[in-house]
Every structure is written in structure tokens, then in C-alpha cells.
Design a protein that fits this description.
Blueprint: H1 3-10, H2 14-17, E1 31-32, E2 38-47, H3 53-61, E3 68-72, H4 84-92, E4 97-101, E5 103-104, H5 107-113, E6 117-119, E7 121-122, E8 136-137, E9 141-143, E10 146-148, E11 153-157, E12 160-164, H6 166-191
Parallel strand pairs: 2-3, 3-4, 4-6, 5-7
Antiparallel strand pairs: 1-6, 2-8, 2-11, 9-10, 11-12
Helix pairs in contact: 4-5
Length: 202
């Protein structure tokens, strides 16, 4: 994967990718807690078992600039692993975003940081420093029904999230860019009053 692919992906309207693919779309229950966001970056993954906060700290240390931290809470949608301190640490590491298949906390502070955080909602109940054995960093995880491997590309905006392997992203990129380039003309033809029969595919 080259930086050019990431740059080109940010030029694509992510819903356009939905015209060409069926897999990789994270459940719409996982949404951005900020408005007007658009992110793309390689995944660093963490699986958190038994609401153990120590696993999150280890994942934060594994982040490099531009990474997207993807958190699998193993079905726990009550304990928040992400809050003000976690977001500040992720920003200090240069993270592009944090994605939680679960909830977050400190939502006002999160929004003030400007770090894009995607979650199923918010909660005051948080993870604990338990030093358990069931968690792991940079392993395959599941997020919103989608398998995420370390290094997969995570794309997100106000519409939702997509996870693609670098190869799948490269394959769809040209088609999505071409479709986006054609859309303004289609919209202009519709607003000009041209008969829809000559515009819409039937």
C-alpha cells in the first residue's frame, strides 16, 4: 500500500463504493460522534475482554501516525474503552480515528479534541484496569459485523464505515472515482428538466 492510495481514497465519496461492493460495510449502528468527518487509514486492532482497560493502553502504544484504532469489545456495549484521556493519547500518537464496536464516554471532551471517534453510543460506565489475559493487540477482530485485520483500510465519514483490504481498495478505486466524476453531470441534467427516462438506468 502506498500513501497515494490513501490520498486517492479520500477523494472518493464513500457511499459510491457501495455501488460496487457488498462486503466490508460496518453496521450503521456504529456512527461518528463528530460531524463533518472523513477518515482513511490502516487499522491497528485491539480485542478487549472483560472490560479490561490495560489492553487499550497497549493498543495506544502500537499506533503510528495515520492509523485507525479499531476496538472489538466482544459484544460488550456497556463499558466505554474510549474517553478524554484515551483520545488525547491517540492524538499524541498521530491516530486518524478510533472506531469502537461499543460505546464511548466523555463525549463533550472527545468533540473538543477533534479526533474522529465512531461508536454505537455513549455511556458513563467505563473499562477497568484489570490486567486480564483475554485481550490482544493487532489480531483479527470483528467490528459491526465485519472482520478487520491489522493493516486493512478503514474508511469513514458521517455516512458510516467501510473496511477493505488494500487489494480490494485498489480494485474499486478507479471505478468509484469514475462514478463520482460522472455524477455532477447527471445531477445537472436532472435539475435542468431533462426527461428522467433518458437519464436513469432501466
Amino acid at each position: 500500500m502506498t500513501p497515494t492510495i490513501l490520498e486517492d481514497l479520500t477523494d472518493v465519496s464513500y457511499p459510491t463504493i457501495g455501488h460496487f461492493l457488498e462486503e466490508g460495510f460496518v453496521s450503521p449502528a456504529v456512527q461518528s460522534l463528530l460531524d463533518n468527518v472523513k477518515i482513511a487509514g490502516p487499522a491497528v486492532t485491539v480485542r478487549i475482554a472483560d472490560h479490561d482497560a490495560i489492553a487499550m493502553n497497549r493498543a495506544l502504544l502500537a499506533l503510528k501516525p495515520g492509523d485507525v484504532l479499531v476496538v472489538d469489545m466482544l459484544g460488550d456495549h456497556r463499558h466505554a474503552p474510549v474517553g478524554a484521556v484515551t483520545a488525547a493519547a491517540a492524538l499524541a500518537q498521530g491516530a486518524a480515528a478510533v472506531v469502537v464496536d461499543g460505546v464511548a464516554t466523555d463525549v463533550l471532551e472527545l468533540r473538543q479534541t477533534g479526533l474522529p471517534v465512531f461508536a454505537r453510543g455513549t455511556s458513563c460506565l467505563t473499562t477497568k484496569r484489570l490486567h486480564g489475559n483475554g485481550s490482544a493487540v493487532n489480531v483479527p477482530v470483528r467490528c459491526g459485523g465485519v472482520e478487520v485485520n491489522p493493516g486493512d483500510l478503514v474508511l469513514g465519514d458521517d455516512n458510516g464505515l467501510i473496511v477493505l483490504s488494500p487489494d480490494a481498495a485498489q480494485d474499486v478505486l478507479a471505478k468509484a472515482l469514475q462514478s463520482d466524476a460522472a455524477e455532477p453531470d447527471i445531477l445537472a441534467r436532472i435539475t435542468s428538466g431533462e426527461p428522467l427516462e433518458s437519464i436513469l438506468a432501466l
